[in-house]
Amino acid sequence: MQDWVMDEVKNQAMGDTRLNKRLPNILSSLSSDPKNSIPCANKIWAETLAVYRFIENDKVNFDSIMTGHKSATLERIKAQPVVFIPQDTTFLNFATDLETTLRTVSCSYSPVVTVPFVNSGNLSKTLIQI
Q1: For the chain, how many helices (H) and strands (E)?
Q2: N or C: which end of the chain has fewer CB within 10 A?
Q3: Digit-coded pLDDT (tens) for 16-70
Q4: How distant, in Å, are the alpha carbons of 11, 63, 116, 129 from that of 74?
Q5: Are 114 and 102 in contact (CB under 8 A)?
Q6: Nearest-CA neighbor of 16 among 49, 45, 58, 52?
């Protein structure tokens, strides 16, 4: 497991010890190659199913997932005399050039699947702690 993962989740509070233990595994597998889908990021089908069960759990939401990261960020901020947090909002609009492409998805334990993929735009709100 990557070192940064344990730093980010050491104060994780999802309301369930099992969820707190599962999150670092999920973060580690998904961050090792971020372009991969959930099935391709996991080595075996049981790990993939565990990620989907985690996501479908009623206690799992954006706020519960972010508790450890928020705590780790505040610890890093408190350790510095001055912190700048610049923000940028970028709108990317591809609606005039909307097209459906086919992407091939292949994993070591599943057949090759071609799925339609549509991308019409993105809103990116970026903050960086300096």
Answers
A1: 5, 4
A2: C
A3: 999 999 999 999 999 988 888 999 999 899 999 999 999 999 999 999 999 999 9
A4: 11, 15, 41, 11
A5: yes
A6: 58
How far apart are the C-alpha atoms of 95 and 76, rounded to whole Å? Answer: 40
How far is it, in rounded angstroms, from Cα 3 to Cα 8?
9
What is the rounded distance in angstroms from the CA atom of residue 6 to the CA atom of residue 27? 10
| Per-residue tokens: 84 | 């700048």
Q: Are 113 and 105 in contact (CB under 8 A)?
A: yes
| Spatial CA neighbour of 51 closest among 26, 32, 27 | 26
Sign of the CA dihedral with 38 first, then 42, 44, and 48 last: negative
Q: Which token pair is 124? A: 């990116």
Work out the mean pLDDT of the chain and round it to a whole number: 82
100/118 Cα distance (integer angstroms): 5
Those residues with Cβ within 8 angstroms of residue 57's Cβ, 6 or more apart along the chain or in another chain: 16, 19
